[in-house]
Design a protein that fits this description.
The protein has 550 residues and is mainly β. It has one helix spanning 347-350; strands at 108-116, 120-128, 130-131, 134-145, 154-169, 174-191, 201-217, 220-235, 239-255, 258-271, 279-293, 296-309, 313-318, 321-327, 332-338, 341-343, 366-381, 384-401, 412-429, 435-447, 460-469, 474-483, 486-487, 496-497, 500-510, 515-522, 530-532, 535-536, 541-549.
């Protein structure tokens, strides 16, 4: 277990008791994926993912270690499912039947272990003791595989320590405050398998930490956070270390009954490469929302961002935003938005879904000067919701990955591009705690440099999933994913990867209220396909194990 490292991060956060609870910071071994998130507030539906891989956020007791390993095939991400209207829990989250195991009051934990095809052991341990008002969290996870073919072995490990403590800062004018912190380190090792140089291997070590505060400043909510990160790459393409710093501050309140919010964010990246420039984004934004009529909701704001990156990139841009929602009746609502934005890229974030990008790749910041959407969302019944939406955008310095030029090592390419998409989504609670969800996305995209489609953006992408509580003890979740052909060239003659279909099934049986056995089949149809050109994805895989939650 030489690749197992302890994940530690230290962030301090002041949380107002009046705020909506935020989910715990999740740090999967698979890096976060690039997404364009929907801003429509009443939907808990799959997100729109334009490129890269994605993972599925599941209830705490059902996190899937399998999803998003060194390879991966999920493009359409499924958000957390609609919660059960009677219990308030996400489906499958049987947290109400914890055993009496003689542990201290407030001591929660979860252990999951299993073995899969190609000698793939995996283990996840997480505990959360509560000592007085102090809440602690300790977790560790490890998994590896000998690989489904030569030069396809990989391993990942990590751990995390976190803490939260309510504090009295009344003397400083801050009330309802909570301090929290986390410190994290991950280690990953994998091959550039399937390329012309199958011996190519990368080792990564990632660490981050920070401090912050959030609380009530009189009648206003205020927040401040400072985070640091370090990523070390060691492979045959380069040996590079990147240091990142992020500062975020915000305030929310009302003036004359009108809600107002302001925020400042600074992200910077420094790499141990002589030829690179500091990269990052600094932004300032002010926004408000109001309801001029009972059936109309408006929000808008104005922002400014400064972008800096390699190749002499230094640019300031304005970011005006407008969102309009109109209730046709109690069941149907129209919503439209104009939302230009910037997307900060660091070397660490570039690895999210792009594990084969050269550590010496140039970094520039993307600017979506024209991004809008318009759609209809409907609550047909309390348990069936749909949304149909059209989106369009135009970007400059858009980060695109194209066919590798040397030994499968990919580079970020930057250029102007545009896209339009039609997205249809549905989520339904069928019976009891059974859930169905479906997302279909049709895209048209154009790379301005050559007129070709944006590399690796499929023209058609769909995902259908169904989770059934077969018996009070047996839960089965299945998913079907369809990805159409993808252009792989940025310039020159067109070249496309073929479409593919992947079916996954996972089941869990509760032997006891706290103990369950699980089994998972990935790529049930044993499809032969590539997500990145020249890099084969795993065939049929079977995993099984046990899980204990208290």
């Amino acid at each position: 277990m030489r690749h197992l490292s302890i994940t530690l991060a230290v962030t301090v956060t002041l949380a107002s008791a009046q705020e909506r609870p935020t989910p715990p910071d999740r740090r999967d071994l698979a890096p976060p994926r690039d997404t364009v998130a929907s801003a429509l507030p009443t939907f808990d539906l799959p997100e729109f993912v334009i490129t890269g891989l994605s993972s599925i956020e599941l209830p705490r007791v059902e996190k899937r270690l399998e999803e998003g390993g060194p390879t991966g095939n999920v493009l359409v991400a499924t958000a957390a499912p609609v919660r059960d209207r009677t219990t308030g829990l996400a489906p499958g989250a049987d947290l109400g039947n914890r055993p009496s195991v003689g542990l201290p009051t407030g001591f929660e934990g979860y252990v999951r272990a299993g073995m899969g095809s190609y000698r793939m052991p995996q283990v996840l341990v997480a505990v959360r003791p509560i000592v007085g008002s102090l809440s602690l969290g300790v977790s560790g996870q490890y998994r590896r595989s000998s690989g489904f073919a030569p030069w396809t072995s990989w391993s990942e490990g990590g751990g995390k320590l976190s803490a939260a403590l309510p504090v009295d800062l009344g003397s400083a004018g801050v009330t309802n405050a909570t301090l929290s912190g986390d410190l994290a380190v991950d280690s990953r090792s994998y091959h550039w398998y399937g390329t012309s140089s199958p011996w190519h291997r990368r080792k990564m070590t990632l660490a981050d930490g920070g401090i912050g505060a959030r609380g009530l400043l009189g009648a206003w909510n205020g927040s401040l956070s400072l985070r640091f990160g370090s990523t070390s790459f060691a492979d045959t393409s380069a040996s590079v270390t990147e240091s990142t710093t992020r500062v975020d501050a915000g305030v929310e309140g009302t003036v004359q009954g009108i809600p107002l919010a302001g925020s400042i964010s600074v992200l910077s990246s420094e790499r141990s490469l002589a030829a690179t420039s500091p990269a990052g984004v600094a932004s300032l934004k002010v926004e408000s929302r109001w309801q001029p009529m009972p059936s109309v909701w408006l929000s808008g704001g104005i922002g400014f961002a400064f972008l800096q990156g390699d190749g002499g990139q230094r640019r300031g841009v304005l970011l005006p935003t407008v969102l309009v929602r109109f209730a046709i009746d109690e069941q149907h609502r129209l919503a439209g938005a104009f939302e230009p934005r910037v997307e900060g890229i660091t070397l660490m974030s570039s690895q999210g879904g792009h594990r084969f990008v050269d550590a010496q790749t140039p970094l520039r910041q993307s600017y979506w000067s024209n991004a809008g959407r318009f759609g209809l969302e409907s609550d047909w019944t309390p348990d069936i919701r749909t949304r149909v939406e059209v989106e369009a955008g135009k970007a400059s310095d858009l980060a695109m990955v194209a066919d590798p030029s040397v030994d499968g090592v990919m580079q970020w390419l930057y250029g102007d591009a545009s896209f339009a998409a039609l997205r249809a989504e549905c989520i339904a609670k069928m019976r009891g705690n059974d859930y169905f969800s479906a997302t279909v996305i049709l895209r048209s995209s154009r790379n301005a440099a050559s007129g070709l489609r944006i590399p690796y953006w499929p023209g058609l992408e769909a995902r259908v999933s169904y989770m059934a509580l077969v018996t009070p003890s047996l839960t089965v979740r299945s998913s079907l994913q369809i990805v159409h052909t993808r252009e792989t060239q940025w310039l020159g003659a067109s070249s496309a990867l073929p479409e593919y279909i992947v079916v996954d099934v996972v089941g869990s049986y509760a032997v006891l209220p706290s103990l369950s056995v699980w089994s998972e089949v990935t790529n049930l149809s044993n499809s032969v396909y590539q997500h990145w050109k020249g890099i084969q994805e795993p065939p049929f895989r079977l995993s099984a194990g046990i899980a204990l939650a208290w």
